[in-house]
Design brief:
This is DsrE family protein. InterPro entries: DsrEFH-like, Sulphur_relay_DsrE/F-like. This protein is an alpha/beta fold. The chain has one domain (about 1-30, about 40-120): DsrEFH-like (Hypothetical Protein Ychn, Chain: A). The protein has three helices and five strands. The protein has a five-stranded parallel beta sheet with strand order 4-3-2-1-5, sandwiched between helices. The longest helix has 18 residues, at about 15-30. The radius of gyration is 14 Å and the shape is globular. The two termini are about 20 Å apart. About 25% of the residues are buried.
Length: about 120
């Protein structure tokens, strides 16, 4: 299963995070003797653009009950460079897990073309 979450609004950061945590919990509950290795086939990407990129800034006061670093390794955090530029942010200001991509909207289209299911909470 491949899923891409689209986070484009800083005010919805907590909702996006909770959706991801709930999905992970459900996936973990699904893996049992009837579905061995199910978790191994799960890939989750989160594309942050617009002002939502601010949620990935290290030591940000904007964070509300979200610990992006604590998510499992199969969750990839992607920050839009165009949005970073628009917010006057540098990639070295982001948490270590964040990967900078040139364009969030392009990445969303690319991932969907690769079979990722799109979710925008």
């Amino acid at each position: 299963m491949k899923i891409v979450f689209h986070s484009a609004e800083l005010t919805r950061e907590n909702i996006v995070f909770k959706n991801i945590k709930n999905l992970i919990k459900e996936i973990q509950n699904t893996e049992d003797k009837c579905h061995p290795g199910f978790n191994d086939n799960v890939k989750i990407c989160v594309v942050f653009n617009s002002d939502a990129v601010k949620t990935l800034v290290q030591n940000s006061e904007k964070k509300v009950n979200t610990d992006w670093e604590a998510l499992p390794k199969n969750v990839e955090l992607l920050a839009c460079q165009n949005s970073l530029n628009g917010m006057n942010l540098q990639s070295n200001q982001l948490i270590k897990r964040a990967c900078v991509i040139s364009s969030g909207v392009y990445q969303l289209a690319l991932l969907q073309a690769q079979g990722f299911h799109y979710i925008r909470p």
